[in-house]
Amino acid sequence: MELRLVGETRASRRHLVLLLLLACAYASGIAPASGSGGRWDLLQRSIGVSAMHMQLLHNDRVIIFDRTDFGRSNLSLPGGRCRVNPRERALPGGDCTAHSAEYDVAANAARPLFVFTDTWCSSGTVAPDGTLVQTGGWNDGYRNARTMPVCGGSDGKSCDWSEKQDALAANRWYATNQILPDGRAFIIGGRRQFSYEFYPKADPSDTSVIQMPFLVQTRDPEENNLYPFVHLNIDGNLFIFAKNRAILLDYKRNKVARTYPVLADGDPRNYPSSGSSVLLPLKPNPTEAEVLVCGGAPSGSYNSTKGSARTFVPALATCGRIKITDPSPAWVIETMPSPRVMGDMILLPNGAEVAIINGAADGTAGWEAAGTPNYAPVIYRPDRSPGDRFEEQAATGVARLYHSSVVLLRDGRLLVGGSNPHTYYNFSGVEFPTELSLEAFSPEYLDQSNDMLRPRILDPSPVGAASSVSYGTTLKLQFSVPASARRRRGGAGGFGLGEVSVTMLAPSFTTHSFAMNQRLLFLEVGKTAAVRGRAGTYNVSATMPATAVLAPPGYYMVFVVNGHVPSEGIWVHIQ
Ligand SMILES: *[C@@H]1O[C@H](CO)[C@@H](O)[C@H](O)[C@H]1NC(C)=O
Ligand SMILES: *[C@@H]1O[C@H](CO)[C@@H](O)[C@H](O)[C@H]1NC(C)=O
Ligand SMILES: *[C@@H]1O[C@H](CO)[C@@H](O)[C@H](O)[C@H]1NC(C)=O
Ligand SMILES: *[C@@H]1O[C@H](CO)[C@@H](O)[C@H](O)[C@H]1NC(C)=O
């Protein structure tokens, strides 16, 4: 609770005293401290389903789902409907509760969705047409593909998941997906699956998988290489990180194009020693790409959480950053303000910040396997000089441990949900109850003090249909900045207008500490032109990425950024 107080108190003597107390507490153990940047809001005390997996779609609704076989959730299926699935492990006789929900951001309301087979620890991609394609799961859901359309209009309250039984060639439980330039999903790994495959398949009866020795090589007795981190490089190859090292895969020829060195001391960074990873923002017409991997847990940590001598080992506080396009790449190590396992890394729309949020300061992913939540997010600023990149943020009071997740919303907030380190929904008698709540973390750029600098996109309309764009074409944007309008009347034009950039961001499928398909591109922008007769209003044109390798087809959010303050995004559809 003290942590929360610090987060919410302005600089004051009390703040200083608390900070000193916390500094002492911190020095005496691993309990992380917190700063004062950003703000937490509780959006919903309970949406009835714990947010193990989340994906924002271009109707500004977030598809949320959990596993289906831990008993009843706290959200009833509509109209007295029940799921009777004899292969269901917990309630084979019938389950009348929902295990998926659609959260409407503007209405701050959720409605139940129906999934039949088990979606536990699965993965997903948004297809080029905007449909969520979820793959894999457990038990009767191991090889299934499920699609969730973008609901709206007359079917807005009735549309739901469809399932395809045995659509995949292999069981995919703890696998990772990455959308490819041709719009298909690349699906890699899963428990005891040392292979990859593609979905959808040209021939539905195609049951072939491609073996991947790298996953055998990086497997250890605790596994520690599940949910590999995958990023589409600017050369079209796939950067794949598992356990403590990475390769560049030419998936078209099934050839390893490059082998990267081991990250630092070899400590594992993938599930259950879950760290997280992002492809850092790409510059216009990029010639370089960098990956950042943060947190994780030392080897042996997962085993230590089991048995009678159960202990929670402090998590890793290090990040590794690597130029994946470099012919002789090397990891550069940086240290976070606090250790973190099961954190999530989310690219913020200003292109200048990465949020590192959720998770614990000790233990690992797994049932009852962590003891010290890390309540305070950290912001990482990749362009600052080393040593000046991390900044601790205000803390929440809600533990977001195993099975928590986070996605970026179009308004720049982070939607934070989930956390259930138990095999069932347990609300009492446990230290970290199952979380059905949703919170929003608003980064500092959303502070009121930035309101005068905040750009607002006027055209295309942020509430209209997504703008259709093609590769290499120009998107004209008109936006306003309140500070400029004010000052202009007094004579001095352009006041409050800093460097203008335009970013384009693919929303992620987030689960188990990895935001799949997340991608941020800076677009090339022309000169910002003041619109005559409309104080504080400007035109700017942005050039769309040249190829589908840079930006696979689909829906992206586009933001105008004034200095470091982003506008609300607009949806664009690139094909
Ligand atoms: C969930 O439902 C149970 C049983 O109806 C109830 O005791 C509990 O308070 C609910 N919890 C939440 C977080 O909604
Ligand atoms: C973890 O435990 C398993 C089974 O008990 C054992 O096979 C394995 O060697 C242990 N791994 C480590 C890293 O201690
Ligand atoms: C959680 O609830 C289930 C079902 O009510 C119970 O069997 C289990 O022991 C509980 N787990 C914990 C960790 O208390
Ligand atoms: C700004 O854009 C609008 C709409 O596309 C256009 O009519 C106007 O001429 C532009 N003005 C300037 C100064 O570029």
TrEMBL record:
Pfam families reported in the protein's UniProt record: Glyoxal_oxid_N, GO-like_E_set
Transmembrane regions: none
SUPFAM superfamilies: E set domains, Galactose oxidase, central domain
Signal sequence region: 1-27
The entry's keywords: Signal
rRNA processing in keyword set: no
The Glyoxal oxidase N-terminal domain, residue ranges: 52-445
The Galactose oxidase-like Early set domain, residue ranges: 464-574
Keyword GTP-binding: no
Protein name as it appears in the record: Galactose oxidase-like Early set domain-containing protein
Organism whose genome encodes this protein: Setaria viridis
